[in-house]
Amino acid sequence: MRTPLIALTLSLAFAQGETPVERRELVRDAVDNYFRSAKLMREFAVVRHTERREFDGGGKLKSSERWTQHIDFIGGVRVGWTIERDGKPLSPGELAMSQDAARQEAAEWKAMTPRQRAKILAKAEKEADYLKEFPHALVFSALPDEALDGRPAMVWAFKPKPGYKARSMGGRAYEGVVGKLWLDKEERQLMRLEAEVVRDVTVGGFLAKIEKGTKFELSQARVEPGCWLPVKQSIRYGARILMVKGIHRAIDTRYREWRRSPEPPWSGN
Questions:
Q1: What is the pLDDT of residue 204?
Q2: Terminal CA-to-CA distance of the chain, rounded, Å?
Q3: Could you tell me the pTM of the whole model?
Q4: 139 and 159 in contact (C-beta within 8 Å)?
């Protein structure tokens, strides 16, 4: 039986044996797998709980709200409706209105032309393009392996890559971010991510500034082979829009009861 010290030494030696190029390729695989899982997410129902808090410039809480949504399929179209607000179930009348709005949303989606639907999906994917820069914009260094939920994970710290030029507006955020990530060894999937902005970063010319101290965390779980979906996501950020309006906000999201739809999602045919 290996002692903890021997196991730690072997783990560290194995992780540090990977070259920077190999680590970057592994991260790129994980990002590709993340996008594949994101597409598969469209075939799953889930219960999503969200809490949003607003702060003043000094960090004092100004307001908060909580709500829970049931994300499911109506006529094969994935939509969501609110079932709880601030910890209390909606009244029958409120729930009926929420479900009616979801049915209307599903009907409007079906009424669109294929070109209109494709345009909306393409826009959503375009907004996430900055994630594809993640493997190239950062330098990854190995830490000792860990186990998350009983599965072996590679653990790496990351920091900005000197001289990297962002290819997208969102990619500018990498210029000031440090953190850690956990990758599942078997499936090369992102299990956990912790990131913090350690210096102010301007994006979009002078349109917005992401302030130092902004933090982001993501935890994912294996729902089925090759498909990992979020169970927890948290972001606390400070930003300044047009260098004038300040926003200080925290959003915590929890997901539970991921369930694949028994019927194929509506394809538009």
A1: 66
A2: 59
A3: 0.86
A4: yes
